[in-house]
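Z., the sequence and structure:
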Amino acid sequence: MRQRPPFAPYALSCVALALLFSAAQLGAAIDARMLRQPDVSATHITFVYAGDIWIVPKSGGTAQRLSTPAGEESFPRFSPDSQQIAFSGNYDGNQDVYVVPSQGGLATRVTHHPAADRMIDWHPDGTSLLFATRMASGTDRFSQLYKTASGGGLPEKLPVAYGEFGAVSSDGRTLAFMPASRDFRTWKRYRGGLTTQIWLFDLEDHSARIVPAGDANHGQPMWYGSSLYFLSDRGEARRNNIWVLAGDSDDLRQVTHFTDYDVRFPAIGPKEIVFESAGRLYLLDLANEAVREVEVDVVTDLSTLKPRTV
């Protein structure tokens, strides 16, 4: 009868432990999906995952979590000098705008009204924030756009009646904004009377014009010099892709060409646009319009899986 060597159980135990350790590592480091609402600086990308704010190098890799409070964060946006990230956080039973150092630290509260405040973008002056709120709308049906100092203080309402998302040109003169938004709706390819539009509003002489849309939806405007990048579902595939309007013309040009899934919540940095599609992050190089995926891993303690009383 053949006998096993006396060391076999010990060897098998070591192999089993090694496999369990590897499985634990794989379970902790996740090739993540559902990376949402990203923004890009000269060196890093920030995004929302599992209700928290994360940051990762533009080359990809393992992301670092910047926020851990129980409340949910959204729309992180780098300051023009990349030293701070402004975002909306629901910490005390209300959604307000906060600012945190880009490499982590204590978040400072900026807005204090009991209405929800959605972070939009930094003003090109580098010291002010744009946000959308219904605090003076008199209804829950629409928001208005405000500007406030990143260190806090009384907000200043922008001189437009409605506003959900927007951006101010680098010279501080032109506001590109959406009076209404379909970004949080559960339906797509809408072609009714409330298709979303982008208006260009001169903050000095108060003149305005609409970016030509036809029967398509336009949204999420972003300035790059005198060019306006934005989302549109006007293409043949009727998927949200990035388009561009150059200067004062009415000539629109499609930049990305996703046909299976929409491009969602893009944001512009010094040289690139970052966006989400099918739960993954992509970078669009504005110099050559090449698109590449940014592969991101997140490492969590899986604390939400721990049994707890609710």
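Residues 1-27 have pLDDT under 50 and may be disordered. The chain has one helix and 27 strands.

Let me know what you think.
H.
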